[in-house]
Amino acid sequence: MKINIAVLFLSVAPLSMVSQLHAHSINGEHLSGQELALSEKKIQVSSNRNVAVFQLYDTRAAAEFYRQLPLELELSNFRQAQWMFYPPEKLNITDNEAYHDGKKGELSYYAPWGDVFMLYKDFYASDHMHRLGVVIDGIDNIAPMSGTVAIEKY
């Protein structure tokens, strides 16, 4: 019976609703950041001799963030789980970027505040958090960062 209801819903739902449904869940399970393709773009984030390298997803927001580099910005700690900073220009986002796993090593954008953040501990996920990238080197170097951070193309 569940399949019939889903088929009926998908056959009458507007295409935009179907794509949003697909972007956030399949069979009731949230999609992870791994569902997005990774781009060739990589960035290096460094602070106090701690360096982490992130590979960016192939998304509009990640590309816009990459174009703003290099940057030197002040870090702010949020709930002892993430370092956040504010790029000079807000990022344009799309619905299919609006989910992240809330896992250590993610680089995401919180649209309501306009900040980019790096998780150094697992944290909650929200539809307002837009995935930008994932750490590929230096995951344990994120937590000890503080003060000013340098963000560069890698």
Automatic annotation (TrEMBL):
Keyword Signal: yes
Gene3D superfamilies xrefs: 2.40.100.20
Keywords: Signal
Record carries keyword Signal: yes
Residue intervals of the Cyclophilin-like domain: 47-149
Signal peptide range: 1-23
InterPro entries referenced in this protein's UniProt entry, alphabetically: Cyclophilin-like (IPR041183), Cyclophilin-like_dom_sf (IPR029000)
Listed Pfam families: Cyclophil_like2 (PF18050)
This protein's name: Cyclophilin-like fold protein
